[in-house]
Amino acid sequence: MKFGEGVSTRLGVLLAASFAVLAAGCADLPELPEGARPSAAPSHPPYAATPADYKAVQDLLTRRAGAALKGDEAGFLATVDRRDQKLVDQQQTIFTNLQQLPMKSLAYEVEETEHTPDEVRNDGVLFAPKVVEVARLEEAHRAPVASSTDMTFVRHDGGWVIGRDRAAPTERYSRPWFGGPVTAATGRSVVVVTEREGPTEAAELLDRVTTARAEIKEDLRSVWRGEAGETPLIVDATFNGQPPGGTFEGDDGAAAVTYWVDAVGPPRSDMSSLAGAVIKDNPTATNRLATDDRTLRHELSHVYGPALVPTWVNEGLAEYLSGCASNICGEDEQRDKLLAHERAIPGDDEWGEDGSIDYAISHAAVSWLIEENGGLKKFLEFCNDFFLHKPGGREDFHDGTGKALRASYGLTERDLIEGTWGWFEDLPTG
Ligand SMILES: [Zn+2]
User: Fold this and answer.
1) Could you state, in chain order, the average pLDDT of each consecutive group of 10 residues for the chain (430 residues)?
2) 306-430 is classed in which CATH architecture?
3) Separation of 245 CA from ligand 1 center, angstroms?
4) Is 3.40.390 the CATH classification of the domain at 51-131+147-165?
5) Extents of the domains making up the chain
6) How close is the Cα of 218 to the center of ligand 1, in Å?
7) Cα of 359 to ligand 1 centre, how many Å?
8) Cα angle at 367 between 366 and 370, to 5 degrees?
9) Residues with beta carbon < 5 A to ion ligand 1?
10) Which residues belong to the signal peptide in this entry (predicted)?
């Protein structure tokens, strides 16, 4: 992931602005004439679902998936409660989004478990079975991917229709079609999805992804990876979704993150149990993935970079390869802060507690090793061998840093810290 410098400030301004609009809206709320007021709350009598209800909902969703794949908008919208215009609008957007994407398969699995139904705007009994969406995108998934949904069904005209469809919070989200309007462009082993009204068109971003990916792969060609062949990839530069748990929250939320999504099927221990990688923009930030090649290159480095290394190696290398002109990207103004900072390489367990400082330290440490101690090829050998030095039974790869440095470089951790802070000394002032 990459922290977004200045994101919190911009977000703060944005929040303040939307609050002002809301406050003004409330003050100006006109008195509605009788009859134009919102109707009474819908009534939802208690209901105990039967096996026939599960089957009816499964059949409904099978028709929905078939309609989405065939491009049959009327058929797709026939599965939702047409009395609720907001719902119809939302579903029309989802349908249109699905048509932009190279869907290879789409299905829903209804499981015999019930959730508490969501609020639904129209009368009728409610039913909320567990529904899993199983989808596969051409070029982006090597196998179908399962995503939780949050659907509530309402009984209307003797059958079930979707009364509410919300994004379920999921750990590894791969549904860029669920939310606002998007456009997509498909390349070899990559699908790029952007906001329809965003700053960058999908085709343009695909060009930049293709170029950056070729360069990053070339830089990292000697990295040992468990995966044979090309990694299928989604670059999701939309504001849709909220993945993965917690990484985007707070003032120091990441600008973008990279993660892998699991393939549907029996669990396997090798990499092929993964359907593909996702590079995802922070939905609450400023569309950095679409506009900033450094963020894109940083995240691509995570796709092709070493896996069995501590976070300081992983993030420092991603920063190094992200392509900045100066020795530490965007950190120049932090020189005094960095020089005064506790002299230690941040460990995996406390990673991110110091926000972008941890990235700057790691970036400097990796830069010092590469630039002054033998180049990129030697550094990647150090990465490939790192797992040999992790103490047995310990989760934290950083515990192997001292041993790995000695084995690969003949250096101590103290040498690395001195080199790193020497690198900060050389930063331009002001
Ligand atoms: Zn990162």
Assistant:
1) 45 37 38 56 90 97 98 98 97 98 97 89 94 96 93 95 89 86 97 94 96 96 82 93 63 78 72 85 79 92 93 94 67 77 91 82 94 96 94 86 96 97 82
2) Orthogonal Bundle (1.10)
3) 16
4) no
5) 51-131+147-165, 169-305, 306-430
6) 19
7) 8
8) 85
9) 1-2, 315, 318
10) 1-23
